[in-house]
Amino acid sequence: MLKSILRSKTGTAFVTGVLRIYIRLLLATIRIERRIDPAVAELIDGGRPFVIVFWHNRLGLIAGAWPEGKGIAMVHSPHGDGRMLGNALSHVVTRPIEGSTRRNPTGAMRGMLKAIKDGLPVAITPDGPRGPRMRCQPGAIEAARRTGVPIVPATCSFRPRIVTRSWDRFLVPLPFTRGIGKIGAPIDLSDVSEDREGARRRVEDALTALTDSADRELGLEPIPPAPERTGTGP
Questions:
Q1: I need a surface site. Which of 106, 112, 180, 232 has the fewest CB within 10 A?
Q2: Cβ contacts of residue 58 below 8 Å, gap of 6+?
Q3: Each residue's pLDDT tens digit, 132-143
Q4: What is this structure's pTM?
């Protein structure tokens, strides 16, 4: 039934509105403790761009980790689900960028480079839109290397929460719960002697470690990454 609703513009607009209201309800009722690395705080306060990465299963409320009133560009899938969630986060995402590793990757990269050139931080889920879960794809690394900006890992965790059975183990926080939002130290990829696979792994490991630490602080068992594919790389 939901799929039939989403085939119409009216249905899509209705679901987007419901998502927007629910996300704002969560942000208004969850006790979120934000922790931002000092070096990243300087980047934000100075209006300097960077690429911010977070795992797809935290997409529903990653806004909880981001400072209020600060605009950001975000890459989302051109698929209906990605577009709806991007629109629902319009109070935070000031410039949506449509594209993904599977659909219009060139457009996604072009949009990221343009946003960085314009001085905006750019957010992307490096394992989206279809995984494998918590395995970094090369798009974020490529954008950072082309522009010389750092990559910044970010995450959020909530208790209690619902963990769905989707490919990414998507998290659904509940109102009136406790949350932690973390933005970790910037990762410099300017060392040209480091190969792309080494850079990819460094970003992946840093983001997973940050995410696991947020879960453990709330007494939650971290969600493990999907098994690594043979030959994973650029």
A1: 106
A2: 155, 156, 157, 171, 211
A3: 999 999 999 999
A4: 0.87
CA angle 176, 182, 187 (to 5 degrees): 160
Provide the pLDDT for residue 5. 45
More confident residue, 185 or 231: 185
Q: Is the pLDDT of residue 19 over 70?
A: yes
- The residue ranges of every structural domain in the chain are 2-217
- In this structure, which CATH number among 3.10.50, 3.10.450, 3.40.1130, 3.15.10 belongs to the domain 2-217? 3.40.1130
Structure tokens at 26: 């969560």
